[in-house]
Queue: 2 jobs
Job 1
Amino acid sequence: MITDATGDWRARDLAVLWHPCTQMREHHQGDDTLPLVPIERGDGAWLIGRDGRRYLDAVSSWWTNLFGHAEPRIGAAIAAQAGALEQVILAGFSHAPAVELAERLLQVAPREPGRAPLAKVFYADNGSAGVEAALKMAFHWFHNHGEHRRRKFVALENGYHGETLGALAVGDVPLYRRVYAPLLLEALFTPSPDAYLAEPGESAAQRAERAADALRELLEAHAGEICALILEPRVQCAGGMRMHDPLYLRRARELCDAHGVFLIADEIAVGFGRTGTLFACEQAPADNGATGIQPDLMCVSKGLTGGFLPLAAVLATQRIYDGFLDDSRERAFLHSHSYTGNPLACAAALASLSIFDSDDVLARNRATSARMSALAAPFADHRHVADVRQAGMIVAFELTRDGDRRTPFDPAQRVGLRAYRAALERGVVLRPLGDILYWMPPYCVDDAQLSLLAEVTRAVIDEATA
Ligand SMILES: Cc1ncc(COP(=O)(O)O)c(C=O)c1O
């Protein structure tokens, strides 16, 4: 039980709090089935508990944190903004941080030669809310153009886009979705290009082509019924850090164009340098000499504010924006959140984007990910590791009984949970996705911290699979 100078913190917490994404009973059991860790402050890659214990935040606090906790430049930007304007309605009013951030985002957004660029920014206040806005925009655009049959969304098997009902409808992780299925709008799921699912002898690129063939068939079978395809470029994060060959992005772009369907890139988890490039869409292989694809709608959140404040943005093309201009208010996008474009969050995001320039973050990340790769490689030989995969600053380890893809552990063994607990005891936050462990540290992580991470990962895999 976690106690400190203020008494039994755990009891106080459990008396009043309902924690996210948690079977609360596991906290109440009292045997630390699922430990509850009170954190007092953060410092770079470390989280520091009320009892003074330090935990290496290997999951960047749900993939939000970019440059480390309590990054002083972002903190200062928020403080300065708080002294001037903390919040103002964004309907009918404007403010500098919202405008400047939109300008900056559009400057750095993925761009494809010959395609009109992303041109407008709509703010929301968390990732799911951003996804909701993008889905509604896609549907409403076709509605405004009299294409009333286009009301379905295509999404990838094993994808994840958030927990609100619209976002959940286009997600395919059963643990989150199944119970709510009767409430959800209709979505069509197409096979994931997930390289882990490749047949023996099949390369990741071949797997991507096969998944693209299935997408083609689906779009053909539902011609004129689909408004958008939504996908997580490069990595299906909540689906177990499953990675695909970026060739799939190129094919998806081509197929969406051929079928007049909008492509929504959900860069909420992978944006802002996580996979090596500022946005994962940039990694699609060359077409006419230019790499990268440009989506019609792009959702960003999480790292957008460097991990300080909730904020999301949906970037849209001019064509989509223009489809809502009319004398009728009903043809407008009347979607709103009270805190849309919150000045504090926008100021944090501007400070975060500045750090990318001033610290040459992407270059540093390349060196860090090379180090992560070297530390992760030996795990491939572990008898319970079926796959070690990496995309930039994300490394994942798939644990199975016999170290192959056919023998997942019995979920009742809770191998991932056991590894999580064992890692916490060793001062590392290694929050698993089922039986998949992953490293997704803040970008400030140093060599010593990475070595600790690798050492603890090996020890807890041994312990959890013993
Ligand atoms: C790809 C992706 N989309 C959307 C979301 C939802 O974001 P939020 O948790 O801020 O609602 C997540 C969250 O993990 C995500 O990984």
Job 2
Amino acid sequence: MRKASLLLVAWFLAFPHSRAQNQDFSKVEMKVTRVSGNVYMLQGAGGNIGASVGEDGIVIVDDQFAPLADKIRAALKGITGKPVRFVINTHYHGDHTGGNALFQKDAPILAQDNVRKRMEHGGTAGNLGKISMQTEVQPKEALPIITFEHDVTVHLNGEDIHALHFPSGHTDGDSVIFFPTSNVVHMGDDFVTYGFPFVDLGAGGSVEGMISAVEKVMAQLPPDVKVIPGHGPISNLDDMRRFVTMLKETLAAVDKGVKQGKSLAELQKENVLAPWQKWSGDFVKADTWLETLYNDLTGKKGEFIKHN
Ligand SMILES: [Zn+2]
């Protein structure tokens, strides 16, 4: 218990966007939105939960924080009396996997191989700069008991729920989850709406990988698809296009400076990200994003976990 609360404190220090809204979990309300077809979205604190709900039961994507498990269960009960059959984790971060140990009593958890490895071993998450935190070793009850290297499909509720790994984006274990019949996609934290994104360079993430993941996903989606971001309201392809354009432009702007031999301090002084100031958020401010881009472009690396 003590360890769990310390872990939460650590997450809140690293992720003030969740701290600001939700210091006290007892005040958190679970908001349920029907996205499209069989798919719902649950918003409480932490990452958005996607839920496929149908005659076979429930498949959820991510499970927020442990203290919210009962509220998540109650919200799901409000949609159907059927049980949770599987949980899929989009990546290892505690605001997406915090409920794992509790939900795994109900149903097996599936995730990409690196999600399990990172939860099993702990490590330092962050942008190798201002954002830095230790992630604790997780108990075995919290570890996904089914893992995959590239992709997996869960055939339930008349839907081929497809989890596809994109290497080295937000982390090195990100999966995007497709619900093709319902015309919904859950992006995990490869797409968020809180402004400049967090790229966990410490856990094998990269900005270029995030760009490539978002572009590859967009290329295979119908134009009217409903997008569940890792954090934020239901979005669409235009939102993702704006996001990826910003990623590419800011990466190019900083790359130009790096190629001219400029230091991070010089680039900060020049305020090279000024044209994208509107993306500066509470969590990742322009300075932190600049530092992320700089560290990524200059090859700073975290602990590398080999991809199989
Ligand atoms: Zn994350």
